[in-house]
Amino acid sequence: MVRHTARPEPRPMVIPGSMRSSAAVAAASRDGSFSLTAPGCHPGRVGALMTGTDALVHVVRPPTGDPAGALVLLHGRGTSEYDLRPLLEVLDPHRRLLGVTPRAPLTLPPGGAHWYISRGIPGPDPKTFDESFELVSGWLDALLEENGLGHSRLILGGFSQGTVMSYALGLGAGRPRPRAIIALSGFMPEVPGFELDLAGLEGYPVALGHGTYDPVIPLEWGERARDRLVEAGADVTWRESPMPHAVDPDYLAELAGWITDVLGDADGA
Predict the structure, then answer these.
(1) What is residue 135's three-state secondary structure?
(2) What share of the chain is helix, strand, coil (3-state, %, to 5)?
(3) What is the CATH number of the domain that holds 97?
(4) Is there a contact between 16 and 104 (Cβ–Cβ < 8 Å)?
(5) Radius of gyration of the CA atoms of the chain, in A
(6) What separation in angstroms does the CA of 125 have from each of 32, 51, 87, 129?
(7) In a domain, 8, yes or no
(8) What total of structural domains would you count in the chain?
(9) Structural domain boundaries enclosing 113
(10) Residue 125 near residue 117, CB atoms below 8 Å
């Protein structure tokens, strides 16, 4: 099943990569709305020097009380853990969830963090993809365990490269499935030796959004992912917005209610 959402009058788009602000980061740090872990990125390679939640630098936005679940957002290529941090407030305005935005483990010229070396669409560089997948899988599992949360209470999402990793982490063969996935402006990865497991997706909630004029990851790749999920029986919410490689703020506002709905159906494990 696919739900098409109608876009209202346009508002300014959100272009990840442009949202970082030292002033905003400093202000958030002062008001205690997030905390930051300390390990560094690994230049030119995916590091394995640390394990558990120490494996990735990450920003934590705590819930107001006991967490009803976790919201983990993975940024796009060449940015940082701060890039999608503002989206936590839009997607979870009442702070019911533990909000976390990690930094990708790989650094490449001219700068910024990457989840893997890009070799085009739909095939990431196999070596860096596999290493990152293993590292981030361990980090994510440890994060949930440390906070007493099961994968059934996890909303996992991302933008661009972060969407690619969200598909891999959420639907990869042998991986525990999160409660739902948010996939913005991305594609499903095709890597030798790696497989997505789309069996048993009947009624599984996935929200996809893509820009009609996206020059980085063309719309057709979002449509292909959508069609595969629909064919597998997933409950797909789809928004196609007249914008480039960016996030539709109106869609984000809708997804706040969507998150509340899908977590309300979870079993609390």
Answers:
(1) helix
(2) 30, 20, 50
(3) 3.40.50.1820
(4) no
(5) 17
(6) 38, 23, 28, 6
(7) no
(8) 1
(9) 13-264
(10) yes
Query: How far is Cα 224 from Cα 219, in angstroms, rounded to an integer?
Result: 9
Each residue's pLDDT tens digit, 57-69: 999 999 999 999 9
Q: What is the DSSP letter of 153?
A: G
pLDDT digits (tens, 9 = 90+) for 142-170: 999 999 999 999 999 999 999 999 999 99
From the list 154, 206, 164, the residue with the least C-alpha distance to 185 is: 164
pLDDT at site 264: 87
Six-digit token string for 165 = 């990793």
pLDDT band per the 50, 70, 90 thresholds, residue 37:
very low
Instruction: Specify the pLDDT at position 41.
Output: 42
pLDDT class for 109, splitting at 50, 70, 90? confident
- Residue labelled with tokens 């390679």: 45
**What are 134's two structure tokens?**
């293993």
